[in-house]
Write a structure and sequence with these properties.
about 140 residues; alpha/beta; Rossmann fold; about 55% helix; globular
């Protein structure tokens, strides 16, 4: 069993129906150990709140989905050790630190970050960081 880091763009697809939710659910069911930085709870809460404000979810649905997240991701990493290198990469790449915290989690665990964020993967393409990132659409079970 391998360990993979997932970000909020993937985890949200477990909770609400979006494009590529089927692949995200296949990833969840593949038997790999899935981890994420603790930041993911804040990002998922924000995404669900936004969907509620847009009328895509009721408040009760959003609350239910948010309470389900620990079932999918029982292992969350503290971000304290991830912040400094993520900050350095954020400054170098001129990209929000949030994505780089997930990437740093994957680097620290010597594994892959699985993300659905094409903008982020395009930003790091051609850098040494790209080897730690797999786009959800490219992910395949082992």
């Amino acid at each position: 069993m391998r360990t993979l880091v997932v970000d909020a763009s993937v985890a949200l697809k477990w909770l609400v129906l979006e494009d590529m939710s089927d692949v995200a659910k296949e990833l969840y069911g593949a038997g790999d150990r899935l981890i994420a930085p603790r930041l993911i709870t804040t990002e998922i809460a924000n995404a669900l709140a936004r969907k509620t404000m847009q009328g895509m979810l009721t408040r009760q649905e959003a609350t239910y989905h948010f309470s389900s997240l620990p079932l999918f991701l029982p292992d969350l990493m503290d971000v304290d050790e991830l912040i400094e290198p993520a900050f350095e990469n954020a400054c170098t790449l001129r990209h929000p630190i949030y994505d780089l915290l997930y990437l740093e989690a994957a680097r620290k665990a010597d594994t892959q970050l699985v993300t659905a964020d094409r903008r982020f993967t395009a930003k790091i393409a051609g850098t040494g960081l790209a080897r730690h990132v797999t786009l959800l659409s490219d992910w395949r079970p082992q």
